[in-house]
Request: fold
Amino acid sequence: MIQAFRNAIRIPELRKRLIFTALLLIVYRVGAHITLPGIDDAVLERFFTQMSEKTGGMLGFVDLFSGGAFKQMTIFALGIQPYISASIILQLLTVVIPHLERLSKEGEQGRKKITQYTRYGTVVLGAVQAIGISFLLRNPSQLASNLTEPIVTISGLGFSMLTMVTLMAGTAFIMWLGEQITDRGIGNGISLIITVGIISAVPRGISYLYTALTSEAFNMDLIKMVLFLGSILVMIMAVIYITLSVRKIPVQYSRRVVGRRMYGGQATHIPLRVNAAGMIPIIFAMVIMQFPQALMSFVPITIVQSMAIAFYSNLALYYASMGLLVIFFTYFYTAVQINPVQMAD
Reply:
């Protein structure tokens, strides 16, 4: 790996792409620490502490994909999730809407048009989520009953408009960064942005683990610690193994005679991934699971808010719903991606 990195540095074109990618990722991480205007950071921290106690690990899971920007409520608080959601929705709609299906078969021009629709969808989803977040920040007592201090220092609808524009622009900017990394960097810009956001939580996790291990309340012996770390390693290896697993479907081409020559007769295979859907079902299920939270922000009805809070507080119901959604979207997305008719053609 070190030798491959050295070889990449020696190639001028690749070196420029690596430097360009690194600079854009630095810009992304800097923006993840710029807090929204009109936010009291101390009260916001107490609010998310109470929220974490009620929702378990759900809030941390959402914050993980934004690179820690959600809990800090920065300009990149929405992260890249609106873009991912818009992309998934467009891919699913290509099966339902004939116009989008025709565009997907028109080559480069059709893909550009679908990409343009995805950008529009990203802006719309970002605006809707930003409005929901602004309403929630203006009325934190809906979720945190013990919080009496206001999070927002700006009164009126001005904060909602400012938050909507800022978060929407932040999401659009992250989308642009990802596209620039894909076109002018080393590629896979969106995946790199998500990866960097997840990696940014590693130092904080190591610090938390060190504090837990050195505390007096820690009572795990060496054997349990080795088993715990070993189980994590085995789980990571299993995920990688399943992700890279491929079922090879043999294909035998028939022979045909053209003039005096014979063509065909070759044997090959169709690689079918065991996990053809990848992370898409999990991400899409997360988007659906955030709907009760958005409902609490938009519908100021006590019974609706109580039902949503009860849903997030019941971890067994939450994880069961999450699992069923993942299974459903895995089946649906795999059926969309693997089309036997297209493969035969």
The beta strands are 246-252, 255-258, 261-264, 267-273.
